[in-house]
Design goal:
The protein has three helices and five strands, in the order ααβββββα. By secondary structure, the protein is of the alpha+beta class. Helix 1 crosses helix 2.
Length: 93
């Protein structure tokens, strides 16, 4: 599913214009980005938790050459699905 598909789903299911549904999707995504950039957790009940985690520097390997390469430390986003979402995906719903 793409961002445009998500806009179309909101447009079809809610009584709003397509422009308004695009603005809704854009605002939600901007809010998610802002929360994660500030380092806070984003908890969405029944869906899951987005969290920024620090990734430590480590030694890895170049898959093409097998040569050792240093992987720098940094930040990454972790998503942990909620129990309800996990069950629905497992059940194929």
């Amino acid at each position: 599913m793409t961002k445009e598909d998500l806009v179309n789903c909101i447009w079809e299911k809610m009584n709003v214009s397509k422009k308004e549904s695009a603005e809704i999707v854009e605002q939600i995504l901007l809010n998610i980005k802002d929360v994660l950039q500030s380092g806070d957790k984003l908890k969405i009940g029944g869906f899951g938790v987005f969290e920024v985690r620090e990734r430590k520097a480590r030694l890895g390997r170049n898959p093409k050459t097998g040569e050792a390469a240093e992987i720098k430390s940094g930040h990454t986003i972790k998503f942990k699905p909620g129990k309800t979402l996990r069950q629905q995906v497992a059940d194929g719903q």
